[in-house]
Amino acid sequence: MTQIISRPSDTKLSQFRVKGEIPVPLLIGRLTLAAVPILLFFAWRSLDRGFAGSATILIIFAALLSVNGIIYLASHNSTLQRRGFITVITVLFTYLAVNAVEDGSAIIWLFAYPPIIFYISEARVGVIACVGGLAAVALLFSPLGDMVFDTPYSTSFRLTMLAVLGFEMFTCFVLDQSRRRSKLGLLKLAAEFEYAAKHDALTGLYNRREAHEQLETEYQRYMRNGRAFSVLLMDIDLFKSVNDNYGHHVGDETIMMVARTLREQSRKVDTLSRWGGEEYLVLLPETDITEAVQTANRIRQAIASTPVRAEKRTVNITISVGTATIHGAESVDRLLQRADEALYRAKDMGRNKVCDSEGSFS
Ligand SMILES: Nc1nc2c(ncn2[C@@H]2O[C@H](COP(=O)(O)OP(=O)(O)OP(=O)(O)O)[C@@H](O)[C@H]2O)c(=O)[nH]1
Question: Transmembrane region positions (predicted)?
């Protein structure tokens, strides 16, 4: 439990998947399932035409892709699976281009590389792989490449291949950027909605609904381990007069000051919420009634000694607090009812007081 949930960063968000998006491990699995029979088919054709060397190498690539898939199924390590797949297909495409498999027509398979690489890796890796790949093809098609590899590609084929491959890589980059931006936008929107559903807009504290959720979670923990928790129900004293005398903007400033003071005076594990207009609920895990009353008094004193600046005047306010600690098998509703009764006793006793549900006050 934290006092305020901070909004997730872009980097964190980009690691999430939006509904409908194909998970990368699944895509790699499907590509492997498609690639293995295709490789075996071309291996069989190479063998049929008397190219036993090419056939063996294509079978090795099929085996490597299968092993990569099997390792993933056994380990569920998606990073290893992705890196293994990228390595194998990069070497495979290089082999298809350099060795002019299938009379040189297999180099056309290079067009399958950019969309796959952009989808399964980070944008930066996609750009590096594509720029590197295009430079390698340009080198292969250069007089230097001819001297080393002696490939059968005509000049017009080389120029067309380079132009179309470069165009495809650029298009994939633009589309991938657009996909990543819209995904991030969707995730940000979802995070904003989630934040708004759980928090109070004025103070940033949890809202009443989320406080109920946290109370229920803490209650379940209490039922399991028996460690009692306490609640502090607090209300700003005579708040209507602050609004009436100084205006609503000073009233709002007062509500924010109390929230700030609550944060300063609480532990990280405590849950702070705005329960209603000028009411707050603090949930103190693993806290008995004595500690709860001490905490309530510390908060009460801190608020009483923190004036709110309003134009040229300062406004001093106080709060009243009702505390209650869970016991036996009582329900959360009953606990809240006892805290509420204690709060009203604190008001009846003249305000700026802490009352516990057992009847004592300070
Ligand atoms: N400025 C501002 N006022 C609010 C907000 N929410 C509730 N209020 C006002 O808070 C006031 C609550 O006043 P009352 O419930 O009468 O209680 P009180 O004046 O605090 O008196 P006691 O609780 O008996 O000490 C009302 O006037 C509400 O309009 C808010 O978000 N901003």
Answer: 22-44, 51-73, 85-113, 125-144, 156-175
Retrieve residue 38's tokens: 């295709």
Nearest CA to ligand 1 atom 13: 240
Q: Is 278 a catalytic residue?
A: yes
Compute, in angstroms, the gap from residue 239 CA to the centroid of ligand 1: 5
Distance, in Å, from the CA atom of 138 to the CA atom of 132, rounded to the nearest integer, reads 10
pTM, 2 dp: 0.71
pLDDT in tens, the chain (362 residues): 444 445 555 556 556 677 778 899 999 999 999 999 999 999 999 999 888 999 999 999 999 999 999 999 999 999 999 999 999 999 999 898 888 887 888 899 999 999 999 999 888 999 999 999 999 999 999 999 888 888 889 999 999 999 999 999 999 999 999 998 988 888 889 889 999 999 999 999 999 999 999 999 999 999 999 999 999 999 999 999 999 999 999 999 999 999 999 999 999 999 999 999 999 999 999 999 999 999 999 999 999 999 998 777 789 999 999 999 999 989 999 999 999 999 999 999 999 999 998 766 66
Q: CB within 6 Å of ligand 1 — which residues? A: 202, 235-240, 243, 248, 251-252, 255, 277-278, 347, 351
The string of DSSP letters for 273-311 reads EE-SSSEEEEEETT--HHHHHHHHHHHHHHHHT-PEEET
- Computed on alpha carbons and rounded to an integer, the radius of gyration of the chain in Å comes to 34
CATH 3.30.70.270 residue ranges of the chain are: 208-356
**Structure tokens, 79:** 């990073």
CA 296–ligand 1 middle distance (angstroms): 21
State which ligand 1 atom lies nearest to the alpha carbon of 240: 19
- Number of residues written out for the chain: 362
Set 168, 192, 218, 278: catalytic member: 278
Domain 208-356 has CATH 3.30.360.10: no
